[in-house]
Predict the structure.
Amino acid sequence: MRKRRQIELFSISFLDLLSGALGAVIILFVAIPKNQKTDQESDQKLNQAVEVTLKESQKELEQVKKKLDEANKKLANIDSKKDEQSSRDLDVGFKFKGKEILFIIDTSLSMIDEDRMGQVKAGLKMLITSLGPEYKIDVIRYPNGSKSPFKTLWGALQENTSSNKMDAFYFIYSLQPFGGTPTRDALVFALENYHTITDIVLLSDGAPTFHNSNKKDDIEDIIKQIKEENSREVQINCIGVGKEFIQDKSSDRYVFLSRLAEQGKGFFVGF
């Protein structure tokens, strides 16, 4: 009997111990978060990786910014050189004295050759388009058929507004080659009647003639008269039109326009 009781007491005590131990394990398992140490280490590694990546990205951004700054400086230098070149080109070509400009267009019969009239129309439209509203302009064509040596668009300078540009374009579009080349009449009329003009732009392909005639006018006499009439020192600019004009620099047409521009302190070009 004693022996049996001892065995039972031992068995119960051992089970209590196991139960207590198991309970403690369960408590610890529930109370302590799973993988806490592992998660902390992972977070630390992730943070370190992010920091390294951010530092590398910052360095790359700084390098990119540096390259962009260098590229912008190069572009600025290129633009500056272009502006300087454009300014030089303008000085050599179309540099006006002021902003009150009278365009005088030769519409003689010879302007039909090589589509010279078409070239003048296109070029003049582009030139007028490039001028701002602060400019004042008018256009004279010569001759006006057999009726008169010339015809004006408005007869007075007008502001180069959008609506006035359209009127000028319509006038230019309607030009048709006909008759002789009474250049003297158009120039004298311009200097006598447009008292505020700063510039005259003459576009022609031929030597001057008398109105309704093929007889050539005296070049030397025209230049002399224009010098006398131009007491206000209007800048006279000349544009020669046509292949023959460019090729033969000894021709009357070339000599006349080049000397007229030289005397009038204006630009002289041929196309």
About this structure: The helical segments are 2-31, 36-92, 116-130, 162-173, 183-193, 219-229, 243-247, 252-263. Confidence is low (pLDDT under 50) at residues 1-12, 24-32, 83-93. The first helix runs from residue 2 to 31. The chain has two domains: 2-32, 95-270.
